[in-house]
Amino acid sequence: DRVAVEGWLTLESAQKVFADAGLDFTAEKELAKAGPYNKALNLKASVTVKNSFKTSESYNVIASLPGADSPDEHVIFTAHWDHLGKDETKEGDQIYNGAHDNATGVAAALVMAKAYANLNIKPQRSTTFLIVTAEEQGLLGSKYYSEHPIIPLDKTVANINMDAMSVLGKTKDVAVIGMGKSELETYLAKAAKRQNRYLVEEGHPEAGYYYRSDHFSFAKQGVPALYAKGGEVPVDEATAQYRKRTNVIVRGCYHQVCDQFRESWDLSGIEEDAQLLFEVGYDLLSSDDWPNWAETSEFQRQK
Ligand SMILES: [Zn+2]
């Protein structure tokens, strides 16, 4: 059974928990590496959770460009349009604009939709854009969609998600969040190669980003889902300098009212990443393939 309260522990806290149980963290870690590990620590925790609930209504937005040959088969692009709203207890600026998180993804989706609509030859499969709400409240919009899909999940070839695209300029690498999970990466690698770029595993897998944006809602239902963005290796020295300066602001403004559009942003990285994901989508739309999850992935298509 699920326990009543679940959470993440910092390494420091985990070490303390093991020490309190009279166990040596390092030794236990080695045991856990060696094979299945399941040990009762015989500790008790008192936990208080205070919640307040508010019911409100919001909307996902969906639009499709029908494919020429297999219109019932879809590739779904997602980007969340919501952010944190308004905080009236704040002095001065009270509005969470969410320019980086996630107007960047929504803007990319709009540009890509326009580009797909303007193709001279329609791809064989249908292209769908799903702009979801309430991501910041716990992926609620995409969760709702994936549990009440408009396009049957077994006709949904793949999901490509765009969330907080990189405003840090062009990069030589493409960071894959949750690398190794699905065959969608082979499409991504091909498109990256055309841009002279290469794939790397995103640098902070311990932060669990694969489980923290809207593609996860599709993954849970078995639809292969890709989440990738510009990596950490700037294309040149000027970009490296710009990146250093801007990263401080971007990080500092994560989920703050100062996440707002800046004239100084170098959007060329987003442009390149949008082109990349457009091409991944295009290749999937132009094929009969049904990419799979990796065998080692915890996600698999539901039969
Ligand atoms: Zn986001």
Query: How much strand?
Result: 15-25%
Strand order of the largest sheet: 1-5-2-6-9-7-8
Total of DSSP H or I helical runs spanning 4+ residues: 8
Q: Which stretches are poorly predicted, pLDDT < 50 over at least 5 residues?
A: none
State the CATH architecture of the largest domain.
3-Layer(aba) Sandwich
* Attached small molecules: zinc ion
What's the helix-strand series? HHEEEEHEHEEHEHEHH
Residue-averaged pLDDT, rounded? 95
- Large-scale geometry: globular
What would the CATH topology of the largest domain be?
Aminopeptidase
**What is the fourth-level CATH superfamily of the largest domain?**
Zn peptidases
Bin the helical content.
Answer: 25-40%
Describe this structure in words.
By secondary structure, the chain is of the alpha/beta class. The protein folds into two domains: 8-50, no CATH class; 61-285, Aminopeptidase (3-Layer(aba) Sandwich), CATH 3.40.630.10. It has eight helices and nine strands. A seven-stranded mixed β-sheet has the order 1-5-2-6-9-7-8. The chain has a two-stranded antiparallel ribbon with strand order 3-4. Helix 3 (99-117) crosses helix 8. The chain is globular and about 70 Å long. The protein binds zinc ion. Zinc ion binds next to helix 3. Zinc ion (ZN) binds at residues 80, 101-102, 135, 163-164.
